[in-house]
Amino acid sequence: MPPGMIMARDTPADAMRDMAAVDPNLTADTYDLQARGDQELPFRMENGVKVFSLRPSVIRWTVLPGVTVDAYAYNGQIPGPRIHIRQGDKVRIDVTNALPEPTSVHWHGLILPNQMDGPADITQNPIEPGETYSYAFTATQHGTYFYHPHAKPDREQALGLYGALIIDPANPADEVAANHDYTIELQEWLIREGLTYPAMPMDGGMPNFFTINGKAYPETDTIRMKVGETLKLRFIGSNSGFIHPMHVHGGPFEVVARDGETIPADARFNADTVNVGPGQRYDVIWTARRPGKWLVHCHIPHHTTNNNVEQQGGGGLMLVIDVG
Ligand SMILES: [Cu+2]
Questions:
Q1: Residue 247 Cα, ligand 1 centroid: separation in angstroms?
Q2: What is the Å distance from ligand 1's center to 121 Cα?
Q3: Report field, pTM of the whole predicted structure over 0.90
Q4: How remote is the CA of residue 9 from the centroid of ligand 1, in Å?
Q5: What is the pLDDT of residues 50-98, one digit of tens each?
Q6: CB 3.0–4.6 Å: which of 175, 185, 205, 294 could bond 238 by disulfide?
């Protein structure tokens, strides 16, 4: 249990298991600083169906030089691999559980058959360790979505299980186009005395590291673009316990989609900060007006530190747009 976690004599064992550190002996593979998540997931065609495979397991993942988390990850990636499909696609995702506990996968925001929706013990039996469950559906919507576990998500999602699900419109004219497209998946982490615990909004469970796409600033990506170009930022609320007011320097952006739904042209609005709560998505278009280094960051200053320390002007939920 993390030091300071509220515990009483009557704290149920189930609760203690959910809040416990990841057993470092279970980490099968270690990924260094160069490893990147959100890699587009390959598929194979079977009778007109795009077939994908996901395999959640326990890994060690590097978020900063010398800072690792013992995490749960899909296919050895944090965030999990990107599932990139087109509206109208028939898909099947085979999920093989290599975790030491039951899991399931929810396709957040999608219209699909109830038994494909993912909530464990509600629409399906949990996927036990070693078992495979296949999710099949037709993508009728388009936009920015994501997937995450729906068995003990307070533990499993907080430990790194989430991934982007990007659905291109069947009609390319329905896409709100930009010169650059960058997806931002947020997460909080709790590392104490070399052990990783699922961060939770409760005493003793508060996070001390924060990542964009699995890395903390200054190890986050730099987006390079030119004056006059546009950038679509897709914010995904893969964060599981906290709300992040995500702000972009250098002038307002236009909010063009929320929760995967394109906002009609006459209802779009300008803003410079969007509150990205758990589960929410915002697509915004930002224009590079002036050359220089422009920040994208969470506006809760503690969330732009690494264990309360700032390095190279910040930490955690921050990245640079370098406009040449
Ligand atoms: Cu924040």
A1: 10
A2: 32
A3: yes
A4: 33
A5: 999 999 999 999 999 999 999 999 999 999 999 999 999 999 999 999 9
A6: 185
